[in-house]
Amino acid sequence: MPLNERDRIEILMMIGVGDRMRTQQEVCRLFHEMHPDREPVSQSTVSRIERKYRELGHVRDAPRQGRPKINENVQQDVILSALENPHCTVRQVSRDLNIGKSSVSNIFKKAPE
After folding, report:
1. What values do phi and psi take at 35, rounded to 5?
2. 14-55: per-residue pLDDT in tens?
3. pLDDT, tens digit, for every residue of 67-111?
4. Among residues 61, 47, 71, 80, which one has the least CA distance to residue 3?
5. CA torsion, points 36, 40, 45, 47, in degrees to nearest 10?
6. CA dihedral 44, 46, 52, 55 (to 10 degrees)
7. Half-sphere exposure of 75 toward its Cβ, with a 13 Å CA cutoff?
8. DSSP assignment string, 62-90
């Protein structure tokens, strides 16, 4: 299971600062002792987290690649337009809201009935 941001911050805190720093192996062991029910972290994972923090100043995930998701407000607008006029077509809603026909169709498919 991948580490979330909270886990990565916990690992950074385990590493420590100044003369109170732990080795990566010690951090791996300590993390496993604190979370015995989880898969142990490797030394390379600790190294990557430490390097990411030094280079970027944070350990957040990078933004994902790909097409952005449709805004929830737009999804609500699509559903409301269908509720207001149940006889409207995908093409009409698409034109009225200035979004793609396939997006409107996908919203209709995912909407609860």
Report:
1. -130, 70
2. 998 888 899 999 999 999 999 999 999 999 999 999 999 999
3. 878 888 999 999 999 899 989 899 999 999 999 999 999 998 888
4. 61
5. 70
6. -90
7. 11
8. PPPPSPPPPPHHHHHHHHHHHHH-TT--H
Is residue 105 left, alpha or beta, with left meaning phi > 0 and alpha meaning psi from -120 to 50? alpha
Q: Cβ contacts of residue 20 below 8 Å, gap of 6+?
A: none
Q: 87 near 113, Cβ under 8 Å?
A: no
- Token pair of 15, please? 């590493």
- Give the whole-angstrom CA distance, residue 10 versus residue 40: 14
- The candidate with the shortest Cα–Cα distance to 26, out of 9, 41, 8, is 41
